[in-house]
Amino acid sequence: MYIGFVWVTINVAHCNNFHCTRRSFPLPSTVLEKQRWCYCQTNATNQPSNNELQELYSPESFGFSQVGTIRGPHGVHGELKVVATSDFAHLRLMKKATRYLLLPNRKYPRPVLLLSGKKASQQNTFIIRLKHVTCREQAAELKQAKLFVRSGEAIELEKDEEYLAKSLLSMEALHMHSQLVLGKIVNVYTREEVLSDKKPGAQDILELKRPDGRHVYIPFVRPIVPKIDLERKQIWLDPPEGLMDISFEEIQKPPKIRAYLPAAKNEENK
Prior knowledge:
This protein has helices spanning 3-13, 18-24, 31-42, 50-57, 89-92, 136-140, 165-168, 191-194, and strands at 64-74, 79-84, 97-102, 110-119, 125-130, 146-150, 155-156, 172-175, 181-189, 205-209, 215-219, 227-229, 234-237, 247-248. The protein is an alpha+beta fold. It has three domains: 3-57, no CATH class; 62-152, RimM (Elongation Factor Tu (Ef-tu), domain 3), CATH 2.40.30; 165-248, SH3 type barrels (Roll). The termini are far apart.
C-alpha cells in the first residue's frame, strides 16, 4: 500500500523507517505530483533514469506542441524575438490567442496571452508581444523560454487567412459531418496559377486524390473547407452535393522520344 511512498522518501531523507516514510510524503496536489506519484507506484522497485524523468515531465506528454523559442528582447517596449520550431509557426505567432510559456528550469508551461506578432527579416523569426511584458528588462528575463500550443488545436479558416501550400500537401481529408475519409491532398494551385489557361477555377484550388485513385478539384473557400488541424495534418471538407462526383483520372503520359542520339565513337579505333 505504501510502496510508492518508500521510493520518494529514500531519495529525499535516506530513511527506511516505515512511519517516517508515511509522514514525510506530501499529498499530491498538482498535476505533476500526481503524475510522479502514479509513476512511483508502478515503478517503486526501479529508480527512474534522468531520461525517463525528462520524458515523464516533458510538455509533449501533457498535450503540448512547441512552436518557438524566445531568443531575447527586441527594442525597448517589451517585444520579443522568437525563432520558429514548427512548420506552422506563422499561423500560431501572428494572431491574438492564448499560448503557453515554459520558462528555463521549469517543467510545466503556463498560459500567456499573445497580443500580436509579425514576421522579422531573418528566416523563421518572428517579433511578438505578450501581455504584461512592457519593457526590455521584462523581455530579457524570458530569454530561452519556449512557446507551446495545445496539441491537436484546430484552426478555423478566416477571411483572407493564408496557408502555405506546403503545409496542406499530404493532409488527410475528412468529411465534416460523416467523418469519412475522402482522400488526401496531393496538390495546391494558387490564385496566380489558377488564372492561367492550364488550371481550372477562379480561386485557390486543392487537388484531392480519392481512395479509388481518381482526382477531384476542391475550391479552397471557407464554406467548403471550414476547418484545418495542422498538428494532426487533417483537413475537414463540407462539399456541396455532386462536387465529389466531378472527378478525373490522372493519366501518366510516357515521355516522347524526339530523336535518336548517334552511337558513341571508340577513340581507340581511330
